[in-house]
C-alpha cells in the first residue's frame, strides 16, 4: 500500500521534490484511487484489476481444496461409522460454509485484509475511505460471494468491469476495494545542525527528552519537505507545545507558537549531543583530578 501526500504549489520545498510525488491537482488515470483524509492529506492507492484478483482467487481455491480434502480424510471419514448420515451431512455443510466464507473472513480480519492468495499476489482489501477492513465488512463482502460466484464468477467479473473501482457485488455492499501493495521510501533531508541554535540553558528546566522523542523529531524534520509549509507547522505545533511545557521553556513564546518546527530543531540540537557532552565533561574532570593527585603524590 502506498500513501502519498499532496504538495502545495506555494511550498518552496516542492521545487526540489521528485516529480513522481508532485500530484497536486493533476488528474490520475488508470488504476489510481485517491482518498482525501480529514487532515487534507491525499492518500493514493493502486487498484487491483480483475486478472490479478482472479489469480489470487485461484491460489486461495487450491488452498481451500487441500484443506477440505484433509478434513474429509482425517476428520469426517473416521466419524462416518459413529454419526448418523443426517448428522454427517449437517457437519459437512458447516465445514463447507467455514471453508468457503470463514476462510476469507478470518484471513481478511486478522491478517490486515489479506488471504494467502492475496498475499502471494501483493493485494489487500481496504475500506473505500482508505481505512483497514474490520470483521463486519469482511463478513458482509464474503457472504455476498455466493451471488458473485454465479456462472463461474461471471457476475462478479461483470460487476468489476462495470464499476470504476473494480468492485464486485460484495465490495459494493460492504464498501470495500482491493488494492495493490506498493512499497515506497520517502526521501529525507537531513537536519543541518550547524545552522540551528540550541536552546539557552537558562530558559529551560532540568527535563531531558527521551531518545524516542529525539528520533521522532529527527524523522519529522527530515521529511519536512513532503508536507506543505502550513501543514508541517500545524503538526509540529502539537509536539512543540508539549515539549515547551515539559521543558519549562521561558524564552520567546513566538518561537513555539509561530515557528514550532524551528523550536523542535533547537530541541534536537540541544539534546541530541547532550549525553556525549556530559560524558566528555566527566572525562575531562576525571583527567584533571588524576593529574592533580599525581602531582600531590610526587
Task: Explain what the structure shows.
This protein is α+β, with helices and mostly antiparallel strands and 298 residues long. Helices cover 56% and strands 7% of the residues. The chain has twelve helices and four strands. The chain has helices at residues 50-79, 85-110, 116-121, 135-143, 145-148, 150-162, 169-174, 211-222, 229-247, 253-257, 260-271, 274-297, and strands at 32-36, 42-47, 123-127, 176-180. It has a four-stranded antiparallel β-sheet. Helix 1 (50-79) packs antiparallel against helix 2 (85-110) and helix 8 (211-222) packs across helix 11 (260-271). The chain starts with 31 loop residues before the first strand and ends with a helix. The relative contact order is 0.10. The model is unreliable at 1-29, 274-280 and 293-298 (pLDDT under 50).
- In quaternary terms, these chains amount to single chain
Rg over alpha carbons: 29 Å
* Model regions low in confidence, pLDDT < 50 over at least 5 residues: 1-29, 274-280, 293-298
Largest sheet: 4 strands, antiparallel
Q: Into which percentage range does the β-strand content fall?
A: 5-15%
**How many strand units?**
4
Strands across the major sheet, in which order? 1-2-4-3
Please work out how many helical segments DSSP would assign: 12
Helix content: 55-70%
